[in-house]
Design goal:
The complex is a heterodimer. In chain A, 15% of the residues lie in helices and 33% in strands. Chain A is of the alpha+beta class. Chain A has one domain: Ferrous iron transport protein A (FeoA) (SH3 type barrels), CATH 2.30.30.90. The longest helix of chain A has 9 residues. Chain A starts with 10 loop residues before the first strand and ends in a 14-residue tail after the last strand. Chain B is α/β, with parallel strands linked by helices. In chain B, the strands form 2 sheets. A 7-stranded mixed beta sheet of chain B has the order 2-3-4-1-5-6-8, sandwiched between helices. In chain B, strand 3 and strand 4 form a beta hairpin. The chains are: A alpha+beta, B alpha/beta. At the A-B interface, helix 1, strand 2 and strand 4 of A face helix 3, helix 12, helix 17 and strand 10 of B.
Chain lengths: 86, 700
């Protein structure tokens, strides 16, 4: 499951980032490391880019990169709140 | 007094941590700006004397990490490795300690004393984030001082800590613990690196070892340049293989993961978060400002307001400046005798530079607005909103701001493209900026549209603007698909919390940018307008011809003929004749050709040159009815030619000031490319429009 499979408002826990070197490293530097939790905040007008809250700050990434962030739903939220599709 | 003691400080930190505010709070107004050698990353340094010590503070670029992927990060670490400041002060945003500590710990790894300035603590506490700075200091081995840059609190404590750490002559002993498996590999690498005494003196061995495991390009280059590198390369390969098979992930990502794991551990013991899931004010603002439906209209309204404010409000001081220069010119002309000197001072200096200086109020207002948008954090939202649209054309969300500034003036716009970190994105953005009609092109449009399309002149001007934007977007695609291949940089951008900008910060931005513009106007543009004046004035026709002209023609035709004759003798006139075959297919006669050439100095010069050529009085501007009449009555002009001239003004290379800025930002190669590209494109478009227009509507 990657970030694009999640709805707006959903929480996630990063499993790993499968992106080419520079982008993958950049995301890891920005805090997308395994075990880190985040929330999908919203997407821009045409669904791209996506705003994510992670480590207490907000970051914007494009769909193409978000697709490479493999996540799982944190255990306490197995039933994620129903939000609008992002 | 004996020689003063000095301590050099590198001020670093993530972007949006209030680093600039802290820099201003430490150094006051004792600052100067420059560039790091070879790159267009701004270098600021400031001084402060405190308790008998002179502190020299270098403001380093804001970065999130120290990889070799971005120019800012390379500049920062090269500065630390080569200039070896005594201390690094790392500005930390207390509202977001984990991500900020990630950079801080990398400084510690570089082996230089680090002090953490826990900045914006006031806001963090309002948000319910409390940091036990003593506990954190103890855990990481880095002194932590709470500061609030905006009101200067904590600054003296910070400087005391700097003196203390320098006096104790302690280099950081502690460093991140990467976990047993990785530490074993790190130790192996360190011992190989340390076996070469001279090499290991140059770079901190532990830092180099970790960089090698991170597959850092820059570190690998350092190794390649080193003669005895076989053992190091071999050990690096072995260690990376081990780590990747052990952790099942790329080793550069494993390094980041271990760093964050260490940070999460420290934060768990020293940071208390009581945010209670409440959304803060900033996030509440974004619910409206980034709303999918009304976010874009709000953004467009903000843009519209800025442009109205700039051009409507700026009109008044601009008018004052213009009348000041007119008064100055007429005052001086009373003292100067008719002749070369008078013409030089009035037409060459005041005419050229005065015109450019009158744009200063516009630039001040525009940059005032832009700085406010930037310092509040809205600019990142604008990039968020616009990214998808610009991405279609191979541009980047952050290309938007420089392109918008281009409507004001290309010079600051080209400079504003520095915010783009990926070189390809930046080059494309800079090349297309001239298509955004700058303020100086407007007088040309107004004059021509007013004269030849009196019924719908505003629509005509609007049309030209839209053609410019379309060409910018199409050119961007074209460049991206041909010579500047490669994907736009990944759009990984922080949306920083909204912050109240400080007056000082805003004023600093504005004076900095305006100063740059004034400096250009006073140097390059002065030289250019003198050059063009000389080209128009020299050589004078031989005396007998002048007399002949005045005898035979002046009474009959009026002095237009004389001016024309005189001009045809000058260099500009000869140039005009020379390029006539090239501009004839566009419908221009040689006089229009000259006007187009003088447009190189400054676009508004097209208007004043037309004024000179059609000699209808000295103070020509776009409002002048007489010039309009003169153009309308000229056989060489028609609505079609006027339209083509507007297109030509839009597309052909921008003014010298903009060209010299392109040279400064991208170098000769790209300057040459941009010039040739715009000239070729301009000629082809004008040719096509004129020829098709002539065939389709033979009447106009």
């Amino acid at each position: 499951m990657n970030i694009l499979n999640l709805n707006r408002g959903a929480s996630f826990k990063v499993k790993r980032v499968t992106l080419p070197r520079e982008t993958g490293k950049r995301l890891a530097d920005m805090g997308f490391t395994s075990g880190t939790e985040g929330v999908i905040v919203r997407s821009a007008l045409l669904g791209d880019p996506i705003q994510i809250k992670i480590l207490g700050y907000n970051i914007s990434i494009r769909k193409s990169e978000a697709a490479g962030i493999i996540v799982e739903i944190p255990p306490e939220e197995k039933n994620p709140p129903r939000g609008e599709d992002i | 007094m004996s020689t003063k003691r000095t301590i050099s400080i590198g001020l670093a930190g993530n972007p949006n941590t209030g680093k600039t505010t802290l820099f201003n709070a430490i150094t006051g107004l004792h600052q100067k700006t420059g560039n790091y050698p070879g790159v267009t990353v701004e270098k600021k340094e400031g001084r402060r004397i405190y308790s008998g010590v002179e502190f020299i503070v270098y403001d380093l670029p804001g970065t999130y990490s120290l990889t070799a992927y971005s120019m800012d990060e390379i500049v920062t670490r090269d500065f630390i490795l080569e200039d070896k400041p005594d201390v690094i002060i790392d500005t930390l945003d207390s509202t977001n300690p984990e991500r900020n500590l990630y950079l801080c710990l990398q400084f510690q790894e570089l082996g230089i004393p680090v002090i953490g300035a826990l900045n914006i603590t006031d806001q963090a506490e309002k948000m319910g984030i409390y940091i036990d700075e003593n506990r954190l200091s103890g855990l990481l081995g880095i002194p932590m001082i709470k500061t609030v840059g905006a009101n200067g609190s904590g600054i003296e404590k910070l400087l005391d800590a700097v003196i203390q750490i320098v006096d104790s002559r302690k280099t950081p002993r502690r460093s991140i613990f990467y976990g047993n498996e990785m530490e074993t590999e790190v130790s192996k690498l360190i011992s190989v690196i340390e076996s070469d005494q001279i090499f290991s003196k140059k770079y901190p061995p532990r830092w180099l070892a970790i960089k090698l495991l991170e597959k850092d390009i820059n570190a690998n280059q350092k190794i390649s340049a080193h003669k005895e590198n076989c053992a190091i390369i071999k050990q690096t390969r072995e260690s990376i293989d081990f780590i990747e098979s052990h952790f099942g992930a790329d080793s550069e990502v494993v390094v980041s993961e271990q760093r964050y794991a260490y940070i999460h551990g420290a934060a768990a013991e020293s940071v208390r978060k009581n945010t209670g899931g409440n959304i803060n004010l900033s996030e509440r603002a974004d619910i409206i400002l980034l709303n999918r439906i009304i976010g874009l209209p709000i953004f467009l309204f903000i843009l519209w307001s800025i442009f109205n404010l700039t051009f409507k409000l700026g009109e008044y001081p601009m008018g004052w400046l213009e009348s000041f220069f007119t008064t100055l010119a007429s005052f001086l002309s009373g003292y100067l005798q008719d002749g070369l000197l008078k013409s030089f001072v009035i037409d060459g200096i005041i005419g050229g530079v005065g015109g450019v200086f009158s744009f200063v109020p516009l630039i001040i207002i525009l940059f005032l607005c832009i700085s406010i948008l930037e310092d509040t954090g809205y600019m990142a939202r604008a990039a968020f909103i616009m990214d998808k649209f610009l991405h279609i054309f191979g541009l980047h969300g952050q290309s938007f701001l420089p392109m918008m500034v281009g409507f004001g003036c290309s010079v600051p716009a080209i400079m504003a493209a520095r915010t783009l970190k990926n070189p390809i994105d930046r080059i494309i953005t800079i090349i297309v900026i001239p298509f955004m009609s700058c303020g100086a092109k407007l007088p040309v449009y107004i004059l021509l549209a007013g004269a030849f399309f009196p019924q719908n002149s505003a629509n005509m001007v609007m049309l030209i603007y839209l053609i410019g934007v379309t060409m910018a977007l199409l050119s961007a695609i074209l460049l991206r698909k041909t010579i500047l291949k490669g994907d736009p940089a990944p759009f990984v951008m922080e949306l920083p919390p909204y912050r109240m900008p400080t007056l000082r910060g805003i004023l600093w931005h504005v004076t900095d940018k305006t100063g740059c513009y004034i400096k250009k106007a006073g140097t390059i543009l002065l030289a250019a307008s003198i050059l063009i004046w000389a080209m128009v004035s020299f050589p004078k026709p031989p005396e007998d011809i002048v007399n002949e002209i005045s005898k035979t023609e002046i009474r009959i035709v009026d002095n237009v003929a004389q001016a024309e004759k005189e001009l045809s003798y000058s260099i500009a006139g000869k140039l005009g004749r020379l390029i006539e075959p090239a501009v004839k297919p566009l419908g221009f006669n040689w006089k229009t050709g000259i006007a187009a050439i003088t447009g190189l100095a400054a676009k508004e010069a097209v208007v004043s040159t037309l004024g000179v050529l059609y000699k209808v009085g000295n103070e020509e501007n776009e409002e002048s009815a007489s010039l309009r009449e003169a153009l309308k009555n000229d056989g060489g002009f028609s609505p079609l030619v006027a339209f083509v001239l507007m297109l030509f003004t839009l597309i052909v290379p921008p003014c010298l000031a903009a060209l010299s800025t392109i040279k400064a930002e991208l170098g000769w190669k790209w300057l040459g490319f941009t010039t040739i590209y715009l000239l070729t494109l301009g000629w082809i478009v004008c040719f096509a429009v004129y020829q098709i227009g002539k065939l389709s509507w033979p009447g106009i």
